[in-house]
Design goal:
Distance between the termini: 55 Å
Order of helices and strands: EEEHH
Strand order of the largest sheet: 1-2-3
Number of strands: 3
Helix content: 25-40%
Largest sheet: 3 strands, antiparallel
Strand content: 15-25%
Shape: elongated
Number of helices: 2
Structural class: alpha+beta
Radius of gyration: 26 Å
Length: 90
């Protein structure tokens, strides 16, 4: 699994934090130590809980398949196809 991590250097220390979760932040003397500490903390959190993928769909994409079994929509589509076919010149 790959996750985005923000690394910042301040006053000779390195901070590694999970993007979107600033409470998951490890500060160490070196970049590598900060990353290792964050990796360890994340591993412990994953072992203690459940990690799932949550897909959020919004906008037009949220309508995909919603009307697949709607007979009225099927009638509308068929009428549009008939009209389109009648307008085509051979």
């Amino acid at each position: 699994m790959t996750i985005p991590v923000l690394i910042q250097s301040t006053n000779g220390q390195f901070s590694a934090s999970l993007v979107g979760s600033p409470e998951l932040n490890c500060v160490r003397p070196s970049r590598d130590e900060a990353l290792a500490a964050l990796r360890q903390e994340l591993s412990q959190k994953m072992m203690a809980g459940e990690l799932v993928n949550l897909e959020l769909v919004s906008g037009v994409a949220g309508l995909v398949g919603r009307f697949a079994d709607d007979p009225e929509l099927r009638e509308i589509c068929e009428a549009i196809y008939r009209e389109r076919d009648a307008d085509q010149v051979p």
